[in-house]
Design a protein that fits this description.
Strand order of the largest sheet: 1-2-4-3
Number of helices: 5
Helix content: 40-55%
Number of strands: 4
Strand content: 15-25%
Number of domains: 1
Shape: globular
Radius of gyration: 15 Å
Distance between the termini: 31 Å
Order of helices and strands: EHEHEEHHH
CATH class: Alpha Beta
Length: 165
């Protein structure tokens, strides 16, 4: 089974980075990939993510997480031969980048009545699944499949909806 290397760009609280690294690895490990992957994560505030959202999605407001996939997966699988996508230097498959607003994660945790830890882990798992071809744009089957996968991963981490620290 492949392993995930998680790199952080910029600063951020060590505790948040540790949790986010664990969540990203748990999401990747929920698939039995025969290759190692890598992801780059940037932790920002609402103003920084608003700038990214405006620049890349032409939406002028803060959001919780942005995902920038590098490969064409669908629900965790790809039709492309993965060995042709591996970085020749590292031997890993670059999955893409994600940007998480810790400020938004804290606000949403309060709004939804659960811990900031659960919200950060949720946003990380959500983003990794986007990098692996999951989507929720149709508000129907695609969203339901993605939500089920997210909750399964969070449950394995001990962060199901019923648990709060």
């Amino acid at each position: 089974m492949g392993k995930l290397k998680v790199e952080f760009r910029g600063d951020g609280p060590a505790r948040a980075k540790q949790l986010i690294r664990l969540a990203a690895k748990a999401a990747f490990a929920s698939f039995d990939y025969p290759f190692d992957g890598e992801v780059c994560i940037e932790l920002v505030d609402d103003e920084q993510i608003r700038e990214y959202n405006r620049a890349f999605r032409e939406i002028d407001r803060a959001t919780d997480v942005l995902s920038f996939p590098l490969n064409d997966f669908y629900r965790g699988g790809t039709d492309a031969p993965y060995h042709g996508l591996l970085d020749p230097v590292t031997g890993r498959l670059p999955l893409g980048d994600m940007v998480i607003s810790l400020e938004r994660a804290d606000a949403q945790a309060k709004e939804y009545g659960h811990s900031a830890a659960r919200e950060c882990a949720y946003l990380t798992v959500h983003s990794v699944l986007h990098l692996l071809g999951y989507d929720h744009e149709d508000e129907g089957e695609e969203k339901a499949v993605m939500r089920e996968k997210e909750e399964s991963i969070l449950s394995v981490m001990g962060l199901s909806r019923a648990i709060d620290d």
